[in-house]
Amino acid sequence: PLPVVAVVGRPNVGKSTLVNRILGRREAVVEEVPGVTRDRVAYDAVWRGRRFTVVDTGGWEQDARGIQAQVAAQAELAIEAADVVLFVVDATVGVTDTDEGVVRVLRRAGKPVVLAANKVDDQRWEAEAATLWSLGLGEPHPVSALHGRGSGDLLDAVLEAL
Ligand code: GDP
Ligand code: MG
After folding, report:
1. pLDDT tens for residues 33-68?
2. Cα separation, 142 vs 129, whole angstroms
3. Residues with Cβ within 6 A of ligand 1?
4. What are phi and psi of 7, to 5 degrees?
């Protein structure tokens, strides 16, 4: 079986867009409306000749109810099944309470985490990305899932963690 990289984070941070960027094709569903990825969806990916499975997940809210609770359960299961967790934060919004909740789940899980500071479409957001060092999850990797900026460096970090 291939090593598994689970992409987690709250709704609308750009997880599915990042998965598509990793795949180099549009398979994961991207929506303006948060929480569209209901279930975990696994795809085969390759970077620098190394194959791995990338798992897209729905986001979750701390006070999850209904569908959000199911999404939360899926995401926690995805972390359990992952070899590496790719944790996505929206650098243009900064750290929210929901992100903090995710960080606590990640700490409990004890899996290797690669931190992606997404929506860094240009260098104006680099400083915001750097504030994510405060999460205590190591180096924040600035990336624009939408435009591809920084995605190679991010994938290199994922391979190093695998
Ligand atoms: P998910 O809910 O975490 O899977 O987020 P999506 O991938 O569905 O993206 C949510 C919204 O953020 C969509 O409107 C995306 O086009 C947008 N988005 C994703 N990545 C980026 C990015 O790097 N830059 C900008 N500006 N928007 C992005
Ligand atoms: Mg999604």
Report:
1. 555 555 568 899 999 999 999 998 874 444 555 545
2. 6
3. 9, 11-17, 30-32, 34, 37, 59, 118-119, 121, 144-146
4. -100, 115
Q: Give the Cα separation of 96 and 54 in Å (integer).
A: 25
Compute the distance from residue 155 Cα to the ligand 2 centre, in Å: 19
Q: What distance in angstroms lies between residue 57's CA and the mean position of ligand 2's atoms?
A: 6
Q: Is 59 annotated as a binding residue?
A: yes
Rounded-to-integer distance, Cα 16 and Cα 22, Å: 10
Q: Whose CA is nearest to atom 6 of ligand 1?
A: 14
Sequence length of the chain is 162
Higher pLDDT, 3 or 76: 3
CA distances from 84 to 24, 35, 94, 159 (A): 20, 22, 23, 9
* Structural domains of the chain, with CATH: 4-161 (3.40.50.300)
Give, as one character, the DSSP assignment of residue 2. Answer: -
